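Appendix B. Raw example, untouched.
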Amino acid sequence: MTEGIKIGLVVSGGNAVGSYHAGALKALSEVLPKDSIKVISASSVGVLNAYSYATDKLDVLEECWKNLPTGGLWSMFRALRKDDLLPKYIDKVLKETDFLDCPFYLSTSDPKKPLIEYWKIEGAYKEDWKDLFYQAASFPFLVPKLRSVKRRRLDGGLLDNIPVYPLFYEEDLDMILILHSDPKYTPPEESFAGGKVVFDYVVNLGLCKVIDHYKFDRKRVAKWFDEGYTLAKEVFTEIFAGVESKEELRSRVIAFYQRKMAERKKAHAADSLATLCNNIFWNLFGRKEL
């Protein structure tokens, strides 16, 4: 059953704790056949994490996370604004030989509307992807505006940090797997359309404080990557290994939720505030898919 299951993957943003997400993706690659992933949606730094997974460059991604040339928020600010760190990392992850086997959605925020936009890329690499990736991860104040871009778009995580919306109407999916860092998050009802199994996995539950989202310390981030990998490997093995039916998969997910429910209720994270702000913006201004 595991080899034939059709999964939509969602990877949220998270600033420095995106290292946990990257580690979780490494674990996913070892537990689940990649061709089980039929569509991907990502925001903010999750775009680089998810794209590295989709194009088999998790080794490059791990090297990037574990060798950050920074020791905290201020040094990250300098690296992004003075040393062009984000373009350098994008160049490491995006290559002209890349080919996306499945649809890949990434989100940007239009501050003038304001509006959340979803961009769908697929197939052979295109040069304009680099500018799009840069804008998708352009966290305000940290990341400077591209000189070559006339219209400023910002980090998609500002308005939709857990971008499950593009997957709402993917009728052929058996499951939506959401990797995020918000213990208060509840998947929208539309995610379950067509009897989909929905598993939202908090990759760093109980391991991070709110301030940790901005602690870009190399040793700390490297440790988070390894923790994210170790924990996710255990969780994904529990959920996917030897599963023989969709209903068994659903039962395993429910059992996991029940075991983690009390811990999730007690946990706090910066992404909980992000989700609340996202919901307010959606109700006021809506979304736009491109």
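End of appendix B.
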